[in-house]
Amino acid sequence: MKNLNFLIPLAAFIMVANAFGQNSVTLSFSGINGTTYYPPDSIKVKNITRNCDTVLYYPDTLLIFNYTGIGEVQNPLNGFKIMQNYPNPVSDRTTINVFVPEKDMVCLYFTDIIGCRLFTTKIMLDEGCQSFSFTPADVDLYLVTASWRGKSNTIRVLNTGRGSGSSCSLEYLGKNSTETQIKSTSAIQEFIFSPGDELMLIGFADTLESGFSDCPVASQDYVFQFTTNIPCPGADSLNYEGQWYHTIQIFSQCWMVENMNAGIMITSAHAQMNNDTIEKYCMGNDEYYCNIMGGLYFWDEMMKYSNVTGGQGICPEGWHVPSDLDWQILEGSADSVYKIGSPEWGTNNWRGTDAGGTLKQTGTAFWANPNTGATNSFGFTALPGGYFIQNSFWGIGYKAFFWSSQAVQKYYRNMDWDQARIQRNNNTGGTGAAFSVRCLRN
After folding, report:
1. Which among 248, 241, 239 has a CA at the least distance from the CA of 265?
2. CB 3.0-4.6 Å disulfide test: which of 71, 244, 254, 264 passes with 441?
3. Domains in the chain, number
4. What is the mean pLDDT of residues 163-168?
5. Contacts from 229-238 at CB under 8 Å and sequence distance 24+?
6. Judgement on whether residues 304 and 318 belong to the same structural domain of the protein
């Protein structure tokens, strides 16, 4: 067995930052499971700021984006793209769409995971989104590569069924008249990136999925973590403001297990003020509850009166108040049906299937009966600390509210004693309620 370096790059985005010289930002990806090298099969990069995405496939994962002048990075495929099949995984048939910028010959290659070519076809295709129906045979994983004018794009097709024969088949269905429902034309034609854009990065390895977010402004080496429900490697606990906090690794995110309890308690008769002192409310004006459930903070107090999404706020150095996107990634990691990057997590109100349950502490010692769906499968250990609003305390034992650092919208999450799902809403005023706070490691 070879001793492999964790920082072997699996993908790179390179760009020229100005017209007077060549600069670059390189994002390289690798993976580990615990401490063992564990390379991703594929990586999905979603640019939340620009509303576009691209997928990289191991080992052919080098993407180079060039431009001149200060501006955006354009996809070198000039719009040519094979889109992820649906459904995926497939048990019988699946649809594959290929976007062709101009009429020309397109080659489709089907190989297995070790690179053996199983099936090849060539077809002249008109401009637009062209559809194919693919029936797999008895291979578990197909790599499907489309080639046009020397440019290639690959997708990964998982087969959960078993075909009746040893060969697969492909049927051309014609031009897809509803291509805009699959993805906008601009997203099909190009992946755009500028320094500081908010990215969702998702790694896939075997049946595992891991994700995190970042807003890179310079070159970065990223490592996906494919293990979960262990103390964060190298930081199983920390002391901050005289209190110990434990950590939990949930795939590529390292969370604090306890709610923040920083600052001094003030009573409900007083307002939290911008006075260089962290102030907190404790349920029932009793610090006993803060020691168990953590403090309750208005949004501005939590952020130390900063308006920066993903800012440190009241968290320790090296940690930050999670953004709305950080919460979406946690929800996708914890839910059994809606995974990371699902549009489900971008909606408001009660969402998902069981993410709230898998994140809640079990039993009824803290949560009121029946504590629906609670499994605490990932060690997040959400407790029902309640909330403070209109000079009154509510919901202890029944509700857990957690702030995000998302400026303007000020999104928060809510888990209930009788819900397995998790709620997302926003409080644009930011001063209407005081909620609990969890910190996420940078």
Report:
1. 241
2. 254
3. 3
4. 63
5. 229/377, 229/378, 229/379, 230/34, 230/379, 232/441, 233/34, 233/35, 235/441, 238/316
6. yes
Q: What is the rounded distance in angstroms from the CA atom of residue 267 to the CA atom of residue 10?
A: 53
Are residues 266 and 133 located together in one domain of the fold? no
CA–CA distance, 211 with 197 (Å, rounded to integer): 16
Domain match, 405 and 366 both: yes
pLDDT (0 to 100) of residue 73: 45
Dump pLDDT digits (tens) for 344-396.
999 999 999 999 999 999 999 999 999 999 999 999 999 999 999 989 999 99
The answer to whether residue 437 scores a pLDDT higher than 90 is yes
pLDDT band at 90 (very low <50, low <70, confident <90, very high): confident
pLDDT digits (tens, 9 = 90+) for 206-239: 899 999 999 988 778 889 999 999 999 989 999 9
Phi, psi for 428 (deg, rounded to 5): -65, -25
Q: 217 and 260 share a domain?
A: no
Q: What local confidence, expressed as pLDDT, does residue 342 receive?
A: 94
CATH number at residue 161: 2.60.40.1930
Task: Name beta bridge partners: 129.
Answer: 99
303 & 335 share domain: yes
204 and 283 assigned to the same domain: no
Are both 217 and 250 inside the same structural domain?
no
